[in-house]
Specification:
Length: about 450
């Protein structure tokens, strides 16, 4: 097709690609996929409807799709050593809902980590979410040292007798102790669901404790450290099967007819590719470099006086704590970093003194920069840039009062976009970032 007739979307995609190459992405839930995963995602597989499961489809013409889905399942089961998996969830959020649908009745009690302490919306965040509305949600938190308060988990579990306890998080820098969660789940007869979306790649490589010997059900998105397509998988462990041999079938039924229609077959095939990639020794090396880079980034920040929640990290992510500079500065620092060519996200800190829209933290992680091939030397440069941006943009405190804050943010943004210091850092960032491809083994 002649270039001028192509939809403007194609030029926007080109611009987005350029943005990803020229900037440094530190959002810990993001990554870049291999050319093979990318190729499979844009294949003819998305033309096909295939509601149901292999050899039990509601549509004809699924002879090949059956084989693809079986391969994906077999590879995931082998990789994680689990007896059962469902690779059809559209993404992590519907996957969690499917697990709850399989294990609970509406109104039953769900125990999960507070959003503000690093939990996920789907772990029972009250009022505004499905999981917090359909179920009686009880939430545990972290202690002053930013680690899970297991005394509180046990106390709440004994008091509220949850049907399901969720162990998982999105902004927690430490390794999760699934064994302790299982002990508590056993004390009250609850199902233990591990949501390892963020750390799957680390679990594969032995860089993070595996939940498989402890949890009954394990959910993971496939697009974070696992480095596959946007999607999710629900695994039932040997522990889960030992407690209920029908658990796998219950999960299947919760996906379809429970919550979903036709599976996204291109995604299923791409999960099969990602699982094969994760079996390669290079993937283990990748995951090790992710945590080594996180250590280097944390050290680079700490040595420049930047504070981190919990004082550091044991995983791929960390949360910068701006509280000592001023409450609620996360929004302006995240914006300024973006102007300077580094994108991250604002985040609450455990003892938040700002607000959800004006939190005091910035969440950063190393999965994507590691996929690009960056190492400790680059992490130190990134830490230096972040420290400079923080120092440069936090000279003014956030005003009190909602209107004053919003007005301040508006003028702050207008100024930051033209700020000479930020724009000169952006050039330095671009110089370095463009030396690295988006995906490197
Ligand atoms: C990312 C994430 C999810 C949700 O996944 P989506 O694909 O964004 O719906 C659920 N739980 C945890 C712990 C996550 O990190």
């Amino acid at each position: 097709m002649p270039k001028q007739q192509r939809d403007e979307i194609f030029s926007l995609i080109e611009q987005e690609k350029q943005r990803q190459i020229e900037m440094i992405g530190l959002i810990p839930s993001e990554n870049a996929v291999s050319p093979e995963v990318s190729e499979v995602l844009s294949s003819c597989l998305s033309n096909k409807y295939s509601e149901g499961y292999s050899n039990k489809r509601y549509y004809e013409g699924n002879q090949i799709i059956d084989k693809i889905e079986q391969l994906a399942g077999e590879r995931v089961k082998k990789l994680f050593g689990v007896p059962y998996v469902n690779v059809q969830p559209y993404s992590g959020s519907p996957a969690n809902l499917a697990i709850y649908f399989a294990l609970m009745q509406p109104g039953d009690t769900l125990l999960g980590l507070k959003l503000a302490n690093g939990g996920h919306l789907t772990h029972g965040h009250p009022k505004v979410t499905g999981s917090g509305t359909f179920y009686n949600s009880v939430q545990y938190g972290v202690k002053d040292d930013a680690r899970i308060d297991f005394d509180e988990v046990r106390e709440l579990a004994k008091k509220h007798r949850p049907k399901v306890i969720v162990a998982g998080n999105t902004a927690y820098p430490f390794e999760l102790d699934f064994k302790k969660f299982r002990e508590i789940a056993d004390e009250v007869g609850a199902w233990l669901v591990a949501d390892i979306s963020h750390v799957t790649g680390l679990v594969v490589a032995g860089e993070h404790l595996s939940p498989m010997p402890y949890a009954h059900v394990v959910m993971s998105t496939t697009h974070k450290t696992f480095r596959g397509p946007r999607g999710a998988m629900i695994m039932v462990t040997h522990e889960g099967m030992a407690r209920d041999e029908k658990l796998g079938r219950k999960i299947d039924a919760a996906i379809i007819p429970g919550l979903q229609g036709g599976p996204h077959n291109a995604t299923t095939a791409a999960i099969a590719i990602a699982a094969a990639e994760a079996m390669r020794p290079e993937f283990t090396e990748y995951a090790k470099r992710v945590t080594a880079n996180a250590q280097a980034l944390a050290e680079g920040l700490l040595s420049r006086g930047v504070k981190l929640v919990g004082g550091g990290t044991e995983t791929h992510l960390m949360v910068i704590d701006l509280t000592s500079i001023g409450a609620g500065l996360g929004t302006q620092v995240a914006f300024a970093l973006d102007v300077a060519g580094i994108y991250a996200n604002r985040n609450t800190v455990p003892a938040e003194t700002g607000s959800p829209f004006f939190p005091s933290g910035i969440r950063i992680g190393t999965p994507l920069v590691t996929t690009r091939g960056m190492g400790p030397e680059e992490m130190d440069k990134i830490a230096a840039w972040i420290a400079r941006v923080i120092e440069h943009t936090t000279t003014e405190q956030l005003p009190k009062g909602k209107q004053e804050r919003n007005a301040f943010l508006k003028t702050f943004r207008a100024r930051a976009q033209k700020d000479k210091v930020l724009l000169s850092i952006r050039e330095e960032v671009k110089d370095m970032a463009t030396k690295f491809p988006l995906f490197k083994w």
